[in-house]
Design a protein that fits this description.
- The longest helix has 7 residues.
- The chain is built from three helices and 27 strands.
- By secondary structure, the protein is mainly beta.
Length: 473
């Protein structure tokens, strides 16, 4: 049924895995599938602090599986509040192929049952109706593909919803949606339906209220007299770590941020391309589940820019603030990476007028996050900023593994035009700002970092708990 299950601080260790470690929806929807209809099996599985250690299987053990013992393989949703799902925020069924076309989403391999991993949250939408309104159509992100009417999708991959006539009082229509997106629902009697978005459990975990909304737009009418469909606007819910962080909720501006396999690498027609000052000094390979491995010489090159990973980018808010974050690891100790956004040739001027961010990797495969923050000044005529994402790899030795490269709009300007007003003398403020190496969310809400410190997201304790700290950048 449309429930939420929460797995917290759990380790699955050792042993042969047959079907999968976590198998979703045993027997769910058997009767409905037999009758040729969809089922309310859009269950949410929420993981935090979950580890998979020493498991094995034929070729590769599945960490998760969609549908088991005849259960519905289309509708379950897996969500992680940390790195429990390999860095993906949500994973939906591979049978919902349209979601693989969304920015920040990628088709995964057997480890995740060939599901679709996304760096944005996906949630359940249940449409309860007091009467059977025939087949509805939900139009929006993830459903812009041709429907497959055969079992087990019965058109759901294309947004066509068929009522579950067995579950609950009168039944409902199941769906999977992207949190924060807008969908249009074609329905005959809008007054007869109730929308249930996600679950109160996620709301309590992420300080975001559960939403049981009633649509307000005019329902569609007969095809001979078309009208605007009912608009179902979903709330901007959670990031996995801090709900109120607009950086975590804002749109991913980097293409192929999870570095899914792509070819070739020397053309502007693909998101990522490479540059090498001396031919043959670097090679790159992509993992099927995402991520890139770059092999570089054993000795550092003379200049940072002698090896690069690049992507063209256009920022439509020329006076906005942004952050470029890179999650990477290196085999050799002492490797250094330089990251920035710049204006490309001929000036190569750094966006925002600051310096490129240089940082060292610990080596030994230890994963590290680093963020380059910048604020753009207003361009003449409000023109968009056009430039490049730049990873300078000339000081990296050996192998470099890149998990993700993210570019998003930041919450506020890095250098406010005027200081905030002084707090009133009584009562005294509890904390005026968050000090170096402290968590700005420790009081349950965001307390801005002091001075020039910046809020940075990472697994700072090495325990899989991703959170923010105020750090000097």
């Amino acid at each position: 049924g449309p429930f939420t299950f929460f797995l917290d601080n759990t380790t699955f260790a050792g042993g042969h895995v047959g079907d999968g470690v976590i198998c979703a929806g045993q027997h769910c929807g058997l009767d409905q599938t037999a009758q040729g209809t969809q089922s309310m099996c859009n269950v949410q599985y929420v993981l935090r602090g979950v580890k998979f250690e020493g498991i094995y299987g034929e070729q590769q053990a599945r960490h998760i599986r969609f549908g088991i013992s005849g259960g519905n393989p289309v509708l379950p949703i897996f969500t992680a509040l940390d790195n429990s799902l390999g860095g993906y925020r949500s994973i939906v069924s591979g049978k919902l192929g349209g979601f693989a076309q969304l920015p920040g989403c990628v088709q995964l391999g057997k480890e995740y049952d060939y599901g679709i991993g996304c760096d944005t949250p996906m949630r359940r939408l249940s449409i309860w109706s007091r009467k059977d309104q025939g087949t509805l159509q939900l139009r929006g992100p993830g459903y812009d593909v041709n429907p497959v009417w055969a079992s087990p999708t019965f058109g759901l991959n294309g947004g066509f919803l068929i009522k579950d006539k067995i579950w609950g009082h009168g039944g409902g229509y199941p769906a999977v949606v992207k949190a924060g997106a807008t969908y249009a629902l074609d329905v005959q009697d809008v007054g007869a339906i109730t929308l249930a978005f996600s679950d109160s459990l996620l709301g309590s975990l992420l300080a975001s209220p559960d939403n049981h909304a009633q649509p307000t737009a005019t329902p569609t009418v007969a095809a001979t007299e078309p009208a605007e469909p009912a608009a179902v606007a979903e709330p901007s819910l959670d990031s996995a770590v801090a709900v109120a962080s607009c950086v975590a909720r804002s749109v991913q501006l980097a293409q192929n941020s999870l570095l899914a396999p792509q070819q070739p690498l020397d053309s502007a027609s693909v998101p990522w391309r490479t540059f090498e000052y001396a031919a043959g000094t670097q090679s790159i390979s992509f993992a099927a589940a995402g991520g890139a491995r770059i092999t570089l010489p054993s000795a550092a090159r003379a200049e940072w820019w002698h090896n690069q990973l690049l992507q063209n980018v256009q920022l439509d808010e020329p006076s906005g603030a942004y952050e470029l974050c890179v999650r990477a690891s290196a085999t050799g100790a002492g490797s250094q990476v330089q990251i920035s956004v710049d204006a490309d040739a001929p000036t190569f001027a750094v966006a925002g007028g600051g310096a490129r961010l240089q940082y060292s990797l610990a080596g030994g495969g230890a994963v590290m996050d680093a963020c380059f923050y910048f604020a753009l000044g207003a361009a003449a005529g409000g023109a968009p900023f056009s430039g490049r994402i730049v990873l300078d790899l000339g000081k990296v030795t050996g192998e470099l593994s890149i998990c993700q490269i993210s570019l998003r709009a930041a919450c506020d300007e890095l250098d406010p035009p005027s200081p905030p007003p002084a707090p009133p003398p009584s009562p005294p403020p509890t904390v005026a700002c968050t000090a170096l190496s402290d968590d700005p969310w420790a009081q349950g809400h965001n307390v801005a970092c002091c001075g020039q410190l910046r809020s940075c997201l990472g697994d700072w304790g090495g325990d899989g708990r991703w959170h923010y700290l105020c750090l000097a950048t």
